[in-house]
Amino acid sequence: MAATHQAAILPQKGGPLTVGERATPEPGPNEVLIEVKAVALNPVDYFQRDLGMPPVPIYPAVIGSDSAGIVAKLGANVSTVPGPGSRVIAFASSFYQNGSPDHGAFQKYALAQSESVVALPDALSFKEGAVFPLAVMTALTAWTTVGIPLDTKYAPQDKQAVLIWGAASSVGAFAVQSAKTLGFTIYATASAKHHEYIKKLGAHAVFDYKASDVVSQIVDAVRRDGVNLHTTHCVVNESLQPTLHVLKETKGDAAAKVAHSPVLPKDHPTLDKTEIKFNFPSMNKAVRDKHMYQCFHGWLQDGLRSGSVVPSPSIQVEGGGLEGLNPALDKLKAGVSGIKIVVPI
Q1: In the chain, helix, strand, coil percent, each to 5?
Q2: pTM here?
Q3: Which of 298, 266, 302, 259 is nearest to 281 (CA)?
Q4: What's residue 162's pLDDT?
Q5: Which of the four pLDDT bands, split at 50, 70 and 90, describes residue 1?
Q6: Helices (H) and strands (E) in the chain, counts
Q7: Which letter, b or e, does each residue of 21-42 get, where b requires 16 or more Cβ atoms within 10 Å of its Cβ?
Q8: Which end of the chain is less congested by CB atoms within 10 angstroms, N or C?
Q9: At a CB cut-off of 8 Å and minimum separation 6, what does 262 contact?
Q10: Domains detected in the chain
Q11: Would you give the distance in Å from CA 281 to the centre of its chain?
Q12: Which pLDDT band holds residue 2 (cuts at 50, 70, 90)?
C-alpha cells in the first residue's frame, strides 16, 4: 500500500472538487481502511460542495459517504468486519468525524468506523454495493426517529400500515424494503413509471403523487383494506401537507407519527395529536454507533444474506473516476428520477 493516494479534494467552500494527493491514513482501533472501488452520489454531496452545508468544518475537505471496495487494513480492535482483501460496503463519511478528510468517500483510500462496514456478497458488484450506505441509514433512522425499533415485527392481524411519500428515491426505495421487514402494509407515492418497481420492492399499493385526487385515492384504499394508518415517512420536499391530509382521514382519534427526511421548515403545517420529527440520528456518539451497528450489521447484513434486501433504485454509471465526480454531481443536481448515480473509482 502506497504512502499517498489520489483524492477528490474540496479546497474551499463552493468547490469545485480538484484531484490531488493525500497521505494514506492508518486506521484507528475501531476503524477500517477501505480501498474504494465505487462511490454513489447523494444530494448532500453537491450541497456540501457548492454551499458548505451541512457544515464542512475543515478545508481542504473530502466529502462523500457511499462506498464499496476492499478492506486494506483493520484497526486493532475490529472483530466484526472481514479481514484484508475482503469485499465490503462502507459508510465512509467525514460528517460524524468532525470533518476529518481521512474519512470522506471521494478518494482511493478512506477510513470508516467498523459499525458501518459490512461484507459485500459475491453476487453484487462494487457499483451495486455503493448504493446502500446513506440511503439505508436514512431510511432506517426514520423508524427509530418516531419510536419504532428496528426489530419490530408486525403480524398481518396487527393491520399496521405506513405511507411512504417519495418511494422512487434511493431513501424511499429502502424505506419500502425496511417497512416490509417491519411487517407494515405499505402505501407509497411515486411517478407512474416507477409503480411496478416499487410494488416489487414490497409496496401494497402505489399512487401517482401528481394526481389531483391522490389524497382521496390513498384514504379510500386504506379504508377499503381495513388497516390502521398512523405512521408516515415524508422522503421528499413538499410532501408534508398532503401526508397530513391523509392522516387526518385515516388516524381517527389516535396519535400519529411523521418522520420527515428533508429539513423541516420553521412554519411547517401541523395536525392534532401528530408528532412530526426531522429524521436524524442521535448526536450522542455511543447511541449513534449502536444504531449504526443495528442498521448495517443487523438489518442490511441479514437482508443481504437472505436476499430480502436488494440494491435500489436502478444504477446510472458515470465514468471518469475521481475526475468524473464534478460532472456526475452536476447531473444529480440537475435532477434524476428513480436512479442512483454511481462512479467507479
Answers
A1: 35, 25, 40
A2: 0.97
A3: 259
A4: 98
A5: confident
A6: 10, 15
A7: ebebbebbeebbbbbbbbbbbb
A8: N
A9: 234, 236, 237
A10: 4-131+313-344 (3.90.180.10), 137-278 (3.40.50.720)
A11: 12
A12: confident
